[in-house]
Amino acid sequence: MDKPDLSPSVEDYMKAIYNIAQTNKVVRVRDLAKHLNVKMPSVVNAVKNLENKGLVIHENYGYIEITELGERVGKQLKNRHEILTEFLVKVLQVENSIAVDDACSIEHYLNSVTVQRVVDLLEFLKYDTDNAKWIEKFREFLSKKGTINNCE
User: Fold this and answer.
1) How confident is the model at residue 150 (pLDDT cuts 50, 70, 90)?
2) Integer CA distances (angstroms), 104 to 45, 57, 109, in order
3) Domain membership of residue 110 as a residue range
4) Average pLDDT over all residues of the chain
5) Which of 73, 108, 133, 140 could bridge 3 with an S-S bond, Cβ 3.0-4.6 Å?
6) Within 10 A of 117 (CB to CB), how many other CB atoms are there?
């Protein structure tokens, strides 16, 4: 992924800023704190870190503005999360709420090559409908085991 070196926590902040900016005209520190369920001083520190990396612009007590680089990074982070969630739900047959949480947990630690391989697999499965048969067989297997959509 073409992005500055970000810790998992800072990636979460960047993804949240990007997501909020997609639905609201402005992003405020308090909105970000509420979205991530963290204290405002934590948001301020993370935003300063993102600003130092050229991903956002933030005036004290003002709005958080995403830079062009921040827009690209935020989009990449959101896409990575969505791809991993889709893989967990559609291929591994994990319940959506669990898949969303798990995607959040693992997305920070996968190499971009691995994420691209997941993308390639999903595209392959959509391209060749014969491949969908093994997913259905896997679902049947899980159902017979009694483990579909539970954590056994």
Assistant:
1) low
2) 21, 25, 10
3) 77-145
4) 88
5) 73
6) 12
- Domain-ending residue, one of 18, 47, 73: 73
Q: Are 37 and 52 in contact (CB under 8 A)?
A: no
The predicted model scores a pTM of 0.82
CATH number for the domain spanning 34: value is: 1.10.10.10
The mean pLDDT value for 115-127 works out to 86
The more confidently predicted of residues 93 and 126 is: 93
CB atoms < 10 A from the CB of 145, how many?
9
The neighbour count for residue 146, using CB atoms within 10 Å, is 8
Based on the domain organization, do 116 and 135 belong to the same domain?
A: yes
d(CA 41, CA 52): 17
Query: With bands split at pLDDT 50, 70 and 90, how would you rate the model's confidence at 152?
Result: very low
Residue type, 82: E
Q: Is 36 in contact with 16 (CB distance < 8 Å)?
A: yes
CB burial of 16-32 (b: ≥16 within 10 Å; e: otherwise) equals: bbbbbbeeeeebbbebb
- Specify the pLDDT at position 3: 63
Token pair 């993308």: residue: 119
43-59 mean pLDDT: 95
